[in-house]
Amino acid sequence: MMPLPPVDRFNRVLVAFVEMKEYFVSISLFKDMCVLAIPVDRCTINIIINCFCHLNEVDYGFSLLGGIIKRGFSPNVVTYTTLLRGLISQGKSVEAERLFKKLVVFNEIKPDVVTLNTIIVGLRKTGHTSIAVRLFRSMDMESCAPDAISYNTVIDCFCKHGYVDRALILLYEMTKKGISPNVITYNSLIHALCNLDRWADTRRLLREMVIRNISPDVYTYNVLINAYGKARKTKDAENVIKLMIQRGQYPDVVTYTALMHGYCLHGDINEALSVLNTMRRKGLSPNTRCYNILIYGCCKNLKVDEAIDLFQDMPFEGLTPTIEICSRILQGLFHVGRHFEAQKFFKEMMPNHGVTLDTETCNTLLHDLCRKRYVVEALSLFHIMEGDDVIYNTLIRGCLQNKKYKEGCVLLDEMHARGISADNSTTSMLMDLLK
């Protein structure tokens, strides 16, 4: 076009491709602009630095810093914030902290709360809690006051790592500074307190939310229902569901799954199955986790037929049974002495549903059966699966530990006939028996 459009038009095109996550396209267009001598500005180069950071090529991003200076511009807060975020996303958190402190010392940038929040959130996501906390504590010293996002990020860091009392101190620190906590603040704290069974503190925070006119969201209620379920306080969990409906928050799949889990832990399988029917009536589709919890509960409470019915229902919900679900049903069948059905399930039903147990899962299952003294059941399953060196060694050790010496010797002879050697653990156990 003549005259050439201003540079901001080109920048808009580049940004449009970035929003579509077409980072390579933006970089390619930038190269064309340079070849065709189309003017670029600092904003253009910042966009391309951002592209390289998204592509985990932060070193190329740093190489463009020279391009900014060469064209008579100075890198700004956006430039360095982008590069810092790029370093963090590539796991170079120590380098990011070092660069940030250097920039502040040499007055290259005057960080604002947005810059620091970007870095702290990034550090939290990559698990570098201690660095995030150090930077958070330096915010006041650098005349950059933290806001609600800063506090929420560090509170969540403390809660995730079990330092809930330190997180509570931060809650009261932020309120003293006139920074209002929100539902995100309280969700992190309530989740951590529930995990520690600190019910009195949990109730106190819920009362605080009411006083501050902060409405719990679905996540808050789900955390409470899950915690009550694990603590086998199913009545309390039911009351929370009634309360959330009264307050205009409607239960989702996570809500009902948490309630199911509580009933299964309590041994109320019929109530758990009733929750599944409630979900369906409300138009909510159960997921694999729902079935996993129900099948585990059924098998644990010796209701294997109900577990198999659920297993057969899964394809009608568009779900494929997992290896974990099949392992639970196998254990359940062996546990109630239905060996023939377990073998049939392994040889027929599982393949028909597209599930085959890998060696690691078979080994874990055999080890678990032996640990629970179901050696006969383990041998029964072993005879219908392919045995490798790991499985042979596991089963021989199981036989020896349960004083099934004859069965162990038969397996040992069979293993040697196949050219498989006993591992150190099995050999050591055999040597101890011969002493």
TrEMBL record:
GO terms for biological process: chloroplast-nucleus signaling pathway; mitochondria-nucleus signaling pathway. It comes from the Eukaryota. PROSITE patterns: PPR. One of its GO terms (cellular component) is chloroplast. Pfam families: PPR (PF01535), PPR_2 (PF13041), PPR_3 (PF13812). SUPFAM superfamilies: HCP-like. PPR repeats lie at residues 41-75, 76-111, 112-146, 147-181, 182-216, 217-251, 252-286, 287-321, 388-422. NCBIfam families: PPR. This is Tetratricopeptide-like helical domain-containing protein.
